[in-house]
Amino acid sequence: MFQVPLPEKYQQLGRDEAVDRIAQCQQQLGDRMVILGHHYQRDEIIQFADFTGDSLKLSQIAAQQKNAEFIVFCGVHFMAESADILAEPYQKVLLPHMDAGCGLAEMADIGQVEQCWHYLQQNLPHPEKLVPVTYVNSTAAIKAFCGNHGGLCCTSSNCRVIFEALWKNDPETVILFLPDQHLGRNIAYKMGKKLDRMALWKPQKPNGSLSPEQIKNADIVLWDGFCCIHQEFSVEQIKSARAKNPQVKVIVHPECSFEVAQAADYLGSTEQIIKTVGAAKPGSRWLVGTERRLVERLARKMMVENIHVELLTDTRCICKTMNLIDLEHLAWLMDNLRQHCQDPEAVPLVNQVSVDEDPKRYAKVALDKMLDITASTK
Ligand code: SF4
Fold this sequence. Notes:
Layout: H1 8-11, H2 15-29, E1 33-38, H3 43-46, E2 51-53, H4 55-64, E3 70-74, H5 77-86, E4 92-94, H6 110-123, E5 130-135, H7 140-148, E6 152-154, H8 159-169, E7 174-178, H9 181-190, E8 198-201, H10 212-216, E9 220-223, H11 235-244, E10 249-252, H12 258-263, E11 266-267, H13 270-278, E12 285-289, H14 292-303, E13 308-311, H15 327-342, H16 357-376
Parallel strand pairs: 1-2, 1-3, 3-4, 5-6, 5-7, 7-9, 8-9, 10-11, 10-12, 12-13
């Protein structure tokens, strides 16, 4: 799937006109449509979002929007896929820019995962105890693999809850964690698992570069994937900030490296970061290790409470693919949607994300399991 070039008139649309068009479409379509905006989106997009949130919150919200015929997902491709998997058959999910993918999600290819699974099963003393868990930042094919092999999904907000449920059910469970090594390692370590019982599967190397012995000793096998945005944070940045101000508090996302997570004061998903900083004392200072747009928006909000918030790094730290969704693409998509609603035969929908029936069935098993476990622990 790729993004068709934007028609010339949209490329030349002024900012004000784009805003007017989107607002008009939103008004005309009313309850037939809902716009979901991920925390890493531009402010100009967030202003139109009916709901904002991280992957978990938006997956749950998407699943609850039974009246909306159209779900416009301002996020990345895997999020729109998840919304489609959880949606009712009459609902359609649209992504304003088809090239808005996720580098991390693309690091786990289904063929590689199947090879890994086969090798692990051959080398584990109890292959039936192997359970695949995928971070929602993964393709529908990987989610379907997990659903079809007794596994499930997780997000950075509920990863610990999911691991706890699996290890409580059977302490000898071996988790194959896809595709983000850092999230899996950081959370398993917080739960008391030892680093030397975590194996790293390198998909480009023969047998993942793991010996049968390493596999036998593992509580968790981590896929060698990462998010390049969260790789921008370093221990040096934390040390240098503390040297300037020893009172400063550091909170980072669990997609950051193990060393950064260890050096920080707190570890939290985007929703947990917003909650923790939101409950901080007036006068406190915070450095946040996650995507820039969320941090800047949080900083503006907290300024009124006299809480100072800054990004941990001075690099750009913007998710490039999220950033592809801009006013022009949203205006183009919304105009199309409005015209389609007036005459569905004459105007086909653009940018619909639709997962094939077979993977959808199993991916839904993996997502529903995650949502059920999360709901049962509240
Ligand atoms: S910030 Fe990283 S994990 Fe999140 S969508 Fe962008 S590339 Fe993917």
